[in-house]
Amino acid sequence: MKTIALTLLASALAVSLILYPRDALSASLRGLDLWWEIVFPSLLPFFITAEFLIGFGVVHGLGALSERFMRPLFNVPGCGGFVWVMGMASGYPSGAKWTADLRKKGQVTRAEAERLVAFTNASSPLFIFGAIAVGFFHDASLGILIAIAHYGGNFLVGIGMRFYKRNDQERSMDRASASWRDAFSKMHQSRLEDGRTLGKLMGDAVTRSVDTLLMVGGFIMLFSVLTELLKQTGAIHIFSHLLFYTGLPETFHVPFTAGMLELTTGIGAITETHEPLLAQLLIVSFILGFHGFSIQAQIASILAETDIRFKPYALARIAHGIVAAALIYVLYFVYRPFQQQSMPTWNPNENFTTPILEFFNHYGPPITLLMIMLMIAVKWNSERKAKKRSLRV
Fold first, then answer.
1. Model-wide pTM > 0.85
2. Which ranges does the record mark as transmembrane (predicted)?
3. Residue 392 located in a structural domain
């Protein structure tokens, strides 16, 4: 039955692509624009920097110091502090990538990795403040409200996940009593064990980061096309009819369904409705916490290379969405008096943007192309050297 269902879905996708080629192409190009203008150039520096920090042993040294608060709070080793902070700064799916790297290196157990991946994947501040608050809501002050609810919800989910498999016998080594000298010694020892030269580390950092981001770009384009095809075929209305039983206003049905597939498209559609601001913020916060199936598919692809199970992460996403929406509801009544005192005046035809988004719009595509060409050159050089060594042997 599973084979039949998957075959029917793949066939339906192929037929839809044939029937709506123009719409599929435009949707794919929208996904490509988002990836090479914003996603790739904004995430690449974080990915490369993280590879350097892991290769130089900095993560292991900081992990020894972070053990004293990461273990009591989240029941994960200290190296999880690096994943948590960097995951919030760079946005999803960064947390999953670095959790998978730590698991491959044996720094975390399977249960610890499943706890860690559940709360280290969050939206980046650039996306919350630039794209959502300014770009969609046209009110920069809402960025603080959304960010507090989003990151606060992630923190509470992490606290809750500390009880996941708490009786598990396997546990990584504790370093609660590590001093700064012990941490530096651990960092030095990890760098020596890694053994890669600076040139080799730089090459690996570029190729691994670009490979991961190419996969992310493929998922963004795929789900952009799927969302558009569901709209064109009317199938999205079938799914949205299920929301009648939730009490959600009818104007939110289609945007919410689109957001469950790909959050950027859904959030944009939600902010275009004429529903009250609080209702829009509640739905947007839930979708941000849920991540959308596009991002969940990216994370599932990364975790598939390890023994980390996807189910704990998926359940944590539902919890994160609910907790973030609840925090928005509470915080909104604190924010509303300030919002009423200084109501933003804006022209719907005005182009709202930020200096950071302007930079990515202008320089994002050439940076993306340059780094892809650099990755190709590094891989070609590595293969050429490997062939020479094999010929000598």
1. no
2. 42-62, 74-96, 116-137, 144-164, 212-230, 281-303, 315-335, 363-382
3. no
